Amino acid sequence: MRVAAVGVHVLDTHVIGVESIPQGSDGQLVETIRWSPAGTAGGTAVVLARLGAEVLSLGAVGTDVIGDTLLALLAREGVDVSGLVRKPDHQTSSSVIPVRPGGDRPAWHCIGANGAFTLDDLDLGVLEGITHLHLGGPEFLGGEAAGQLLAHAHSLGATTSLDVLAPGDPDMLAWIADALPHTDYLLPNDEQVLGFTGATDLAEGARALLAAGAGCVAVTRGAKGALVVTSDDVVEVAAYPVAVVDTTGCGDAFSAGFLRGLALGHDAPAAARLGCATAAQVAQGLGTDAGSYSLESVSALAAG
Q1: What is the pLDDT of residues 193-205, one digit of tens each?
Q2: pLDDT-based confidence at 103, cuts 50/70/90?
Q3: Confidence of residue 21 (pLDDT cuts 50, 70, 90)
Q4: Any idea what DSSP says for residue 160?
Q5: Backbone angles phi, psi at 118, to 5 degrees
Q6: Residue-level pLDDT at 3
Q7: Which helix (H) or strand (E) holds 48?
Q8: Mean pLDDT, the chain, as a whole number?
């Protein structure tokens, strides 16, 4: 499996042990502060690499120390970072995530160079030989440009997937609508599906996204697992019970496990089980790259 992970790349700073924000200029001791590569493209790239895929990251970072760190962390995981362009006039996208007991994690985020990434930054020649293109954050490109990129991937014989970063909103769906007919697998969360479509039932909302052009909709539902909706079927996939440390990156981990499962020949529900098993591994650590997991260990959990 040779994957191009295109779009949003972020450096996350996780702070574990935050029960409240100190008042005024007061300080507070916390358990851990940690950096990790993240984003709907970057986080998915890391997990795919851990699951044995050959991964090329494509996107934009700044020329700052944050960018240097993000590139180093991605490369350490085996991700090819040669397709990440440096933008001297933009800082690298970054988030600070205070993780509360129980895994809830509000965030402060700077869009940075992700907002400056365009198709002109992409050398389409590097896509030759890919088997899959995953586009994370199509809203930054816009639907027309995203559709062109996904259509090009199809012309190369690759399958395609799409993961939207922004919250669900009908206007956002309209903004990316041109990309959906070129999307084999749409990977939203439950709040996005309901927000995009105005539906009150998740399966109904997913079917509306199928009608808009997506080939399959695999919806993450947090502790409830996932819902896989195709033109023929609706299948619920349960989550795996684990002791949650940090839910940051679980959606990206699901995407990676799901796509890896498809590449291994699994049908969509079985691929979603692998996605949920992968997300369970990530939830037990701090950040997408925390802990130690592999295709073998994740497959064993999914099979059990």
Answers
A1: 999 999 999 999 9
A2: low
A3: confident
A4: E
A5: -135, 170
A6: 98
A7: helix 42-50
A8: 94
What CATH class does 2-20+31-118+130-303 carry? alpha beta
- Across the beta sheet with 32-38, what order do the strands follow? 32-38, 10-16, 94-99, 108-110
Total Cβ atoms within 10 A of residue 282: 32
Which of 35, 4, 5, 34 lies closest to 17, judged by CA? 34
102 Cβ contact partners less than 8 Å away, ≥ 6 residues apart: 244
* H, E, C per residue of 226-286: EEEECCCCEEEECCCCCCCCCCCCHHHHHHHHHHHHHHCCCCHHHHHHHHHHHHHHHHCCC
Per-residue pLDDT, 304: 75
Instruction: Provide the token pair at 47.
Output: 């997990």
Tell me, what amino acid is at 62?
A: G
